[in-house]
Specification:
This protein is α/β, with parallel strands linked by helices and 306 residues long. It contains 10 helices and 9 strands. Bound molecules: iron/sulfur cluster.
């Protein structure tokens, strides 16, 4: 393999294929409830970037049971990661959230827990809860950064500065047994490729375990979608994206796990770029390109041209 994939990593950890089950803890987001903002990030749908999560009205154990039934054909190992995916899953009553994490972990087939959140909504009490969880199971915390550039943060209405992200990464990194995964987005219309690569290089030097790389997905029902339909802006075609992604991968440290390489927006809502909709073909094209060009993760430490 030319890069360290999640599957390869899970195999090394659990000796088998592991399936991530998206759960809904019933959280909201400070960027939607008025604490930080009301409109959310410009590309975020009303689902809080969790289009594939379960029914939030069901108890966690029920969500898990339903999801396991759905994926039972694909997941023969019966090993699952409880993935609290949509909105900000450390934002809310800590006692209630802690009980939900525990409920997921009480399932014998759940081998770890992954919690997606924002870096500005982890309270002192929540750090303690995470530290306690990390003593009992594998814990991954996913932080949405998207870009290191302040102008981009303004454009996308992220609602926190880079300094908050850095402080949170430092704090989380002090928790033994907890792994940090960072989300970044490439191909935002306000950035050049050099700026995108600056974000990549920044992440390459963070004390993190994994990276989720997405290309910008323009979705129906988002402010970005409305803007795009009014005034379309150029997005990379698949060939151009793969070529750039190859450069990104070659600059990432060898041991960093690459969890995702493209956006993952719901097909029914996708406005652009349409090549994202064909996930299998896109993945095959990426793998074939990396192989053909002999691009290997961690092989390039040169300056990226500005
Ligand atoms: S932080 Fe996440 S859930 Fe909140 S508005 Fe942004 S993308 Fe949506």
């Amino acid at each position: 393999m030319n890069y360290r994939s999640a599957n390869e990593y899970y195999h090394s950890l659990f000796g088998d294929k592991v399936y991530r089950i998206a759960l809904d803890a019933g959280c909201t987001c400070p960027n939607r409830d008025g604490t930080v903002g009301t409109g959310g990030c410009i590309f975020c749908s009303g689902m809080g970037s969790g289009e594939f999560a379960a029914n939030r009205n069901l108890p966690i154990s029920e969500q898990l049971r339903e999801a396991k039934t759905r994926v039972s054909d694909k997941c023969t190992s019966r090993k699952y990661i409880a993935y609290f995916q949509n909105f900000s899953n450390t934002y809310g009553d800590e006692k209630v959230l802690s009980a939900k994490y525990d409920e997921a972990l009480s399932d014998d087939e759940v081998v770890g827990i992954s919690i997606a959140t924002r870096p500005d909504v982890i309270s002192e009490r929540m750090y303690d809860i995470l530290a306690d969880l990390a003593k009992r199971t594998h814990v991954w915390i996913e932080l949405g950064l998207q870009s290191i550039h302040e102008s981009t943060a303004q454009w996308m209405r992220r609602g926190y500065p880079l300094s908050v992200f850095e402080k949170t990464v430092r704090r989380l990194n002090e928790i033994s047994g907890l792994d940090i995964i960072v989300h970044i987005i490439l191909d935002m219309p306000c950035e050049t490729k050099s700026q995108m690569m600056e974000t990549v290089d920044y992440c390459a030097h963070l004390p993190i375990h994994g990276l989720k790389i997405a290309n910008l997905n323009v979705l129906r029902g988002t402010d970005l979608g409305e803007q795009y339909l009014r005034e379309p802006f150029p997005l990379m075609e698949l060939d151009e994206y793969i070529d750039f992604l190859g450069k990104v991968i070659s600059r990432l440290p060898k041991d960093l796990v690459i969890y995702r390489m493209t956006g993952d927006g719901a097909k029914r809502d996708l406005i652009a770029p349409m090549w994202v909709a064909n996930k299998r073909q896109t993945r095959n094209r990426i793998d074939a390109y990396l192989k053909e060009k002999q691009i290997v993760q961690g092989s390039d430490s040169t300056e990226y041209p500005s």
